[in-house]
Design goal:
178 residues, mainly alpha, 58% helix, 0% strand, elongated
């Protein structure tokens, strides 16, 4: 049978001293350079968050236009093709007038060319299908086929997502803003 070792006697422990633990390491940087870098990073993060918020608010018209186009696409089978295409034209016209107010009065190829150039659409609205679309808006006997309507809905979605807007806010504020 094995014997258990005896616990140490108090004679052995009398010269033992307690270990002093070092102070805990702080999370705040100790040198001035890291503090300045941290403040600059926080300032940049704050500016970026303000910029993203301004951009989100600015692009509200895009989100609303995309929702309207989606609603038009869903109602395509229930409504007449002329009313669907006139609703689509109205959505694009309002969005384009938001970007460039001078376009609000146009109902011609100049409007179609603007849509193509502002979104860099290679095969876009300024085509025979686009002209046929304009004709169908003013002449009730013109009707578009399902494939033409689908093509125009796809182009409208692409235009709303990718058109350039010169009024878009930047990361740095302009002095002429109020």
């Amino acid at each position: 049978m094995m014997t258990q070792p005896a616990p140490p006697s108090s004679q052995i422990l009398k010269d033992l001293t307690e270990i002093v633990l070092p102070d805990p390491v702080g999370w705040w940087p100790q040198t001035l350079g890291w503090q300045i870098l941290g403040i600059l990073a926080l300032a940049f993060l704050l500016l970026w968050a303000v910029y993203r918020y301004r951009l989100y608010r600015f692009n509200r018209y895009r989100r609303e236009a995309l929702q309207a186009i989606a609603a038009i696409a869903q109602s395509r089978g229930q409504s007449a093709s002329q009313s669907v295409m006139s609703d689509l034209f109205l959505v694009l016209k309002v969005a384009a007038a938001h970007v460039q107010p001078a376009l609000a009065s146009h109902l011609d190829r100049q409007f179609l060319r603007y849509l193509d150039t502002s979104a860099s659409l290679a095969e876009g609205f300024d085509s025979p299908a686009g002209q046929y679309w304009l004709d169908s808006l003013v002449q009730p006997d013109f009707t578009l086929s399902d494939s033409q309507m689908q093509q125009l809905l796809t182009l409208a979605n692409r235009w709303v997502k990718h058109h350039s807007n010169p009024n878009q806010p930047g990361l740095v504020w302009r002095r002429d803003e109020h």
